[in-house]
Amino acid sequence: MGKMRVSSTFVAIIFMVNYLVGCTNNNEVYNNVEEIKIGVTVYKEDDKFISTITNNILELAKKKEKEENVKITIDILDAKENLANQCNQVDKFILNNYDVICVNIVDRTSAATIIDKAKSSNTPIIFFNREPVEEDMRRWKDVYYVGAEAEKSGELQGSLIIDKYTSDKSEIDKNGDGKIQYVMLEGEHGHQDTAIRTEYSIKTIVQNGIEVEKLADDTANWEFAQAKSKMTGWIKEFGSEIEVVFSNNDDMALGAIEALKEAEINNVIVVGVDGVTEALEAVKNDEMLGTVISNSIAQAEGIFNIAYSKATNGDLSDVEGLEGKYIKTKHIKIDKNNVDVYLK
Fold first, then answer.
1. What span is annotated as the signal peptide, if there is one (predicted)?
2. What is the pLDDT of residues 256-266, one digit of tens each?
3. In whole angstroms, what is the distance from residue 200 CA to residue 206 CA?
4. For residue 27, is pLDDT > 50?
């Protein structure tokens, strides 16, 4: 694990992103270039936030290649929301002697199987975005997790509504009954961020003395199309009663906005989480009140820095933000006042 041959000659820097699992030996030198092999398997490749993380990992690998004259192969595979696919992908990474495996797991409650595979092959494993339960994280010394502080994302989403309610109550409480009537678009069942963001966004508002009334909530599995469909149904059912749409992520928030546009409704407050570019643009264009950046760059840095360190010397003492087995990145609240800074 992490063994490399040091070339005595000037080395060419080659970056290869290979979506098919290769069959080269882990210690093979290609064109006199050192090689580190990092396997990445994601629950669903077309998830906007996850694809942002993986794209950032690729950029970090390119930068490190130039700095260190080392060939870094990043193989990114799509499990297509199928745990069996993902287990097979992990097996292929192990069979082909990858230095580190990074997993955005399909089912966070099933991490033990993957951890045991990694342990048996002595291959460090880094979970990201979907946190295994604590018991599974303790199964082996070389298991790590990189993600965000889910509680804080919910709190900051709630605070966006508090700020608006405080500055212009009538913009939210349109019927003047002293309550916020809302609907909640939830992420995938079983994902820790779904439960935590849902709970803390509302709890934060209530703790600040603002009454709320839930009209409806349902899962849309982080997806634009499902959220649009759910929102369309709620518009038909509740019409002008809906004052706020809470969404566990931006992609679902954007789906809700599309449904509102088609219904020619423009006075419903929508808030999301993630800070994807399309959501930031929606905030700038007054289609969303705000979002919460779930720093994909910081998360990618955490994943890559652990992986690179484990693949080289195994020393994690210089990995910024690592506390034991965990890196938990900070969130940033975004509204019309600061969105231009983050769009840049």
1. none
2. 999 999 999 99
3. 10
4. no
Tokens encoding 302: 């955490």
Query: pLDDT at residue 7 above 90?
Result: no
Q: Give residue 96's domain range.
A: 15-141
Query: In b/e form, how buried is each residue of 172-199, taking b as 16+ CB within 10 angstroms?
Result: bbbeeeeebbbbbbbbbeebbbbbbbbe
Contact 318, 309 (CB under 8 A): yes
The Cα-based distances of 234 to 140, 213, 217, 218, 230 in angstroms read 46, 15, 9, 10, 6
Residue 208 makes CB contacts below 8 A (sequence gap 6+) with: 158, 162
Q: For residue 315, tell me if it sits in a domain.
A: no
For residue 4, which of 90, 75, 73 has the smallest C-alpha distance?
73
pTM value > 0.85: no
| Integer Cα distance of 53 and 103 in angstroms | 12
At position 299, the amino acid (one-letter code) is Q
Which two three-digit tokens encode residue 101? Answer: 């495996």
In Å, how far are 29, 32, 247 from 35, measured between CA atoms?
7, 9, 42
The answer on 178 and 62 residing in a single domain is: no
- For 84-99, the pLDDT digits (tens) are 999 999 999 999 999 9
Instruction: Tell me the residue ranges of DSSP E strands in the chain.
Output: 15-17, 34-42, 70-78, 100-103, 125-128, 143-148, 179-186, 211-219, 244-247, 269-271, 291-293, 326-329, 332-334
Residue 201 sits in the same domain as residue 113: no
Do 225 and 87 share a structural domain?
no
Of 165, 100, 105, 168, whose CA–CA distance to 137 is shortest?
105
